[in-house]
Amino acid sequence: MTRPDRTYEIHEVAELTGLAAARLRAWERRYEVVRPQRMSNGYRAYTAGQVALLRAYARLIQGGERIGDLATQPSEGVLARAEARSLDGSPHAALMEAVCAFDRERIEGLVAQQLALRGLRAFAEEVVMPLARSVGDLWALGRIPIAAEHLASEVVLHALKGGLRMSRGTGPLVVGACLPGERHEWGFLATLAVVQEDGWRIHYLGADLPVDEVVQAAWKLLPQGVAFSSSDPAIVRASLPALARVLGKLPPRTTAAIGGGGVEPHARVLRGYGFVIGLEAFNKAPPR
Fold first, then answer.
1. How far is CA 264 from the centre of its chain?
2. pLDDT averaged over the chain?
3. Top-tier CATH class for 170-282
4. What pairs with residue 184 in β-bridges?
5. What are the domain boundaries of the chain?
């Protein structure tokens, strides 16, 4: 989910839109589809609204349209057509309608239905993540208020956390937590749901947790892995001193992983600390 309160570097935009960085640069040069600011180091800084527009271009191009034609059209029209296309026949069309209407009862009913029909893994991958992108884009563009985003988050997070509790198996344990200051949980919980469906047990401690308290919990729970997450590079940067000490404090043979949209700018440093970047360490069935 994009956030209106931060900007995105080109590698993050490429991941969020599915457009290669080289294509993004070419579109900027040839068509001026968006005009990102330049940071002091020369890197491009895209707003959440620009990311949403680029994602709309990408969606329409997948449907056979040409960027040269789209670049000449008003952005509001492009966004509206892309939104309509993304909702046509999609499982979250009714959900988005309910979110925009602040219809909590409808959201809860649809979420429960989709979770029951699909199971936890497909619910996370096919419903939660597309819904997060749609809600994030509309929020970034100012087309839904933050209250609607909070309502959707509360219902979806409750369902994901309930699914994690109900689906626990007998595999090795992974303890998960968001870094201090991080309250955006959608992506992390959806990823943990997939990891759990692969056979791991997940013990999610919550958002906005001090790193040392997660370490203390690890000594009580003795997991095979500990996973941290943050969507904001600034939050990761602020936590680097504490993260530098994690591997020396965890129980022996405990894997430490960290993921989320805020990690990439600090990936080299974090690898040097001994972290696995992303949750690829848990993307396969656990050892028996």
1. 13
2. 88
3. alpha beta
4. none
5. 1-88, 89-167, 170-282
Using CB atoms within 10 A of its CB, is residue 89 exposed (0-12), middle (13-18) or buried (19+)? exposed
Sign of the dihedral through C-alpha 50, 55, 58, 60:
negative
Helix axes 104-122, 146-166, angle to 10 degrees: 40
Higher pLDDT, 222 or 40: 222
pLDDT at 280: 75
Distance CA 125, CA 194 (A): 8
Q: Which two tokens stand for residue 123?
A: 């619910």
